[in-house]
Write a structure and sequence with these properties.
This protein has 117 residues and is of the alpha+beta class. Helices cover 40% and strands 15% of the residues. The protein is built from three helices and four strands; from the N terminus they run ββαβαβα.
């Protein structure tokens, strides 16, 4: 897949039946990186809907080795997902699965901003 795209596979030996793989943009290397990152979330949600799944979990896409700044990535993730509830029929739960407490705190701060307006 190309940056901004998503693909679904089986869960294999994991506790989930499906895995959605997203290829996020590389910070300062891919053009239109904000749009590509938002597209990852859009495509993943669309795949989840297409398969009539009820939930999806996201990591902090493009952060880490792809170098996307966590604050910017979180804002894009939350705004993209937050703007889609009317388009989602089967998906009723979206989780952000974070490995660092610092990332969770940044997500919580941004969530309160996005939720308020």
């Amino acid at each position: 897949i190309e940056p901004g795209e998503a693909a679904m596979t089986g869960g294999h030996d994991l506790p989930n039946d499906h895995i959605v793989h997203c290829l996020g943009p590389r910070s300062k290397r891919d053009q239109s990186e904000d749009e590509l990152l938002a597209a990852c979330y859009d495509h993943a949600l669309a795949l989840t809907e297409d398969h009539d799944l009820q939930s999806i979990g996201f990591s902090a896409l493009s952060t880490g080795s792809l170098g996307y700044p966590i604050d910017e990535a979180i804002e894009i993730a939350l705004r993209t997902v937050w703007s889609r509830p009317d388009e989602l029929e089967s998906v009723d739960t979206v989780r952000f699965v974070l490995f660092l407490d610092d990332d969770r705190e940044v997500y919580e701060r941004h969530l309160s901003i996005v939720a308020d307006g």
